[in-house]
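Observation: inputs received (chain + magnesium ion).
Thought: call the complex predictor directly.
Action: predict_structure
Action Input:
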Amino acid sequence: MNTQVIKIDKNNIDHDEMKKLGKIIANGGLVAFPTETVYGLGANAFDDQACKNIYIAKGRPSDNPLIVHFADIESVEETVWSISEDAKKLFHCFSPGPLTVILKKTDKISNTVTAGLDTVAVRIPSDIVARELIKASGVPIAAPSANLSGKPSPTTSRHVIADMNGRIDAIIDAHDCSVGVESTIVDMSGKFPVILRPGGITFSQIKKILPNAVIDEHILSGSSKDEKPKCPGMKYRHYAPDADVTVVEGEMHNVRKKINELLSENSNKKCGILTLGQASYKAGLVINAGNNNKEYAKNLFKSLREFDENNIDIVFAEFIIEDDYSLTVKNRLYKSAGNKVIYV
Ligand code: TXA
Ligand code: MG
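Observation:
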């Protein structure tokens, strides 16, 4: 398939181009687009075949449902049973933005989108280009992250082109994602709010609005394939670069000492080290992911892809401080490492 790569400047949006892109979606095509979290791979959420094509383009297991992106709360109300007062509070505080809410669906949304569940994941993105695309297409847009299944989520158009060129109709070549990690998913379809995936909004931010919110137990552990986690995506290996990843977790001095030992043990391999803040190591390609976990979350996927671009064999990732954002980082890091964690 010939993929059109179309440049869009968020500060000077070409509305004719956006109309063309909207038409591709409305007519059943696939378009990758920026959001504030990660790039998404979009299709008309009302078009069953188009949504099936998303799974094919990504190589995604068909039991892993998609998030539906809306421009505003009014259009959400047309496709879900009802929005509870608590769910409204969440939307009011964090939307448009990096929040996804699970709600009971109506028949308007196809079973392909929800992988047969009676709930639907709803998100109102804040990214201006994402919003313009939804408006131009005139329909809600079902979109997973625009990476090949299992790979780190794309936070620049370059990542999307690397994974999706030749597999979809169009890629919007625009700005880098400002949050860099996916939305926080809150299940509001049950008796009390459950956080199914930590993301751009922290647990304590959610707790402030809904004090009875809890964190799903699978978030860090992952789960075995035969269990039925609430968030089907949680049972799959995720965010994995070609390089082998090991997380080294603990107090900074111990973490750095341990990684230096690991570098010696692996001196025959090309090693990479992902650090929290400035660090000097005796060997290997060092990428500083930032000075706190919010920056680490933003740079994590980009850095994992950078290690692959440099043909690194093994990555040692520092995980040091606990703060509001540490759950988001930990969840992505542990998954990219396939739960290989050394505690020191
Ligand atoms: O920030 C984001 O959320 C990005 C951008 C593109 O919006 N999207 C994203 O989609 O991360 P994806 O497909 O990579 O992850 C969606 C997650 C999956 O783990 C899936 O299992 C879960 O949401 N999910 C979707 N529908 C669900 C539902 N009805 N109930 C529970 N989990 C659901
Ligand atoms: Mg994804």
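Thought: report the result.
Final Answer: The first helix runs from residue 15 to 26. Residues 144-145, 153 surround magnesium ion (ligand 2) (CB under 6 Å).
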